[in-house]
């Protein structure tokens, strides 16, 4: 049994279209593959490659991340069974709670009665423009929002409502209260929204408006027991780093850390590795998604991955023989694909421990829930969904 398991989610780093990608308009999406093509193979992820990232695909290999003869870990990919392609359903499924019904999306904008209620509660004008890029909407409407002391409410192809406000006009605390109220309105049919996202921004005009790290996700509370709760009830310590606490509404989490950035998140991972505990530390690194995937920036996404890979080397060196590291993703967000939204992809899964004496393929897993099932299996707990691959790790 491993004493500590560290799970790191590289938010949006998919590894190729899922079998049902066409249903979502995502056939041909390939986050890692298209980043490799953008760099023409002139990039490097040596630590991920050392664990086995390049060995996952036997055909249509990722340019620059080729297979190696003797990886130090185990490698495979997982297929999502949930009905969506958002962070919430991806993470919930990893933790044994697949989302088998589709949440509400708003391709034509939000219902007027819903916006009227939010506006009345806030006492603010609402500038609601339906689906929009988060960086473009504050560029196009930020000056109006500042002038009128208004809220910008927008969405994407995902089941989210994003509420943006200038921090000097509407305080972060006030924005959070407004989001909490909006959350209370969208927990049952006909409006069931996965996440209400507070999007504070700063700046003086459209040319320099930028979103801040005070983002906060107000997620739909888990609709059943997750593997995090199962671990906690069994006496295992559960640590959430990044937006993990938000995604699970704090349920099943003993200790949480907010990330200012991916680098800050890795600083938290380094700090937690130095702690003496038995249990699971679950990390989400969201910059791949918010800064690069949605903005369709393959160069930035590739460079951010290379930066993570450098930090990964430090993590691998700090692990103890009875530690297990699991790396995966929650969905795709192909920066070389059309649009600006998440993409329905399979995700990589990598496993490494300094005590491993062998390496090999974990194959194609039929659900993200295999991730959580493996963690439960390690701590001698029964899982409800998924198949553990613990016994495959030698």
UniProtKB/TrEMBL annotation:
Q: Give the protein's cofactors.
A: Mn(2+)
* Enzyme Commission number(s): 5.4.2.7
Keywords, ordered alphabetically:
Cytoplasm, Isomerase, Manganese, Metal-binding
State the reactions this protein catalyses.
2-deoxy-alpha-D-ribose 1-phosphate = 2-deoxy-D-ribose 5-phosphate; alpha-D-ribose 1-phosphate = D-ribose 5-phosphate
Output one GO BP term: 5-phosphoribose 1-diphosphate biosynthetic process
Residues binding Mn(2+) 1 are: 11, 330-331
Q: In which pathway does it act?
A: Carbohydrate degradation; 2-deoxy-D-ribose 1-phosphate degradation; D-glyceraldehyde 3-phosphate and acetaldehyde from 2-deoxy-alpha-D-ribose 1-phosphate: step 1/2
Cellular compartments per GO CC: cytosol
Instruction: Tell me where in this chain the Metalloenzyme domain is found.
Output: 3-382
Group of enzyme by EC: isomerase
Q: Where in the cell is it found?
A: Cytoplasm
Residues recorded as binding Mn(2+) 2, renumbered to this chain, are 289, 294, 342
Q: Which InterPro entries match?
A: Alkaline_phosphatase_core_sf, DeoB, Metalloenzyme, Phosphopentomutase_DeoB_cap_sf
Could you give a GO molecular-function term held by this entry? magnesium ion binding
Q: Which HAMAP family match?
A: Phosphopentomut
Q: What does this protein do?
A: Isomerase that catalyzes the conversion of deoxy-ribose 1-phosphate (dRib-1-P) and ribose 1-phosphate (Rib-1-P) to deoxy-ribose 5-phosphate (dRib-5-P) and ribose 5-phosphate (Rib-5-P), respectively.
Q: Which family does it belong to?
A: Belongs to the phosphopentomutase family.
**Name of this protein:** Phosphopentomutase
Q: What species was this sequence derived from?
A: Weissella koreensis
């Amino acid at each position: 049994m491993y004493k500590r398991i560290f799970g790191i989610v590289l938010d949006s780093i998919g590894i190729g279209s899922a079998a049902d990608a066409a249903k979502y308009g995502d056939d041909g999406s390939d986050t890692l593959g298209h980043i490799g093509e953008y760099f023409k193979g002139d990039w490097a992820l040596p630590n991920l490659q050392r664990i086995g990232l390049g060995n996952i695909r036997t055909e249509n290999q990722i340019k620059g991340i080729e297979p190696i003869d003797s990886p130090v870990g185990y490698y495979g990919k997982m297929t999502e069974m949930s009905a969506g392609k958002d962070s919430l359903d991806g993470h919930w499924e990893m933790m044994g709670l697949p989302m088998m019904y589709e949440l509400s999306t708003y391709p034509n904008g939000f219902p007027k009665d819903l916006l009227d209620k939010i506006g009345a509660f806030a006492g603010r004008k609402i500038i609601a423009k339906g689906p929009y890029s988060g960086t473009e909407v504050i560029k196009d409407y930020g000056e109006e929002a500042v002038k009128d002391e208004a809220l910008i409410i927008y969405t994407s192809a995902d089941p989210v409502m994003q509420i943006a406000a200038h921090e000097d006009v509407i305080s972060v605390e006030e924005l959070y209260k407004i989001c909490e109220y909006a959350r209370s309105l969208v927990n049952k049919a006909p409006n069931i929204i996965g996440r209400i996202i507070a999007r504070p921004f700063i700046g003086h005009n459209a040319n320099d408006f930028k979103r801040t790290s005070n983002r906060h996700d107000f997620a739909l509370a888990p609709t059943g027991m997750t593997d995090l709760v199962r671990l906690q009830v069994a006496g295992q310590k559960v640590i959430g780093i990044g937006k993990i606490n938000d995604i699970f509404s704090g349920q099943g989490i003993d200790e949480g850390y907010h990330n200012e950035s991916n680098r800050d998140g890795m600083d938290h991972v380094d700090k937690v590795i130095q702690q003496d505990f038995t249990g699971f530390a679950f990390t989400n690194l969201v910059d791949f998604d918010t800064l690069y995937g949605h903005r369709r920036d393959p160069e930035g996404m590739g460079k951010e991955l290379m930066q993570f890979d450098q930090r990964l080397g430090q993590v691998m060196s700090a692990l103890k023989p009875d530690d297990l590291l699991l790396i995966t993703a929650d969905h795709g967000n192909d920066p070389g694909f059309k649009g600006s939204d998440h993409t329905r992809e399979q995700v990589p899964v990598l496993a490494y421990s300094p005590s491993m004496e062998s390496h090999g393929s974990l194959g194609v897993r039929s659900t993200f829930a295999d991730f959580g099932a493996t963690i439960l299996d390690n701590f001698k707990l029964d899982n409800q969904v998924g198949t553990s691959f613990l016994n495959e790790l030698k």
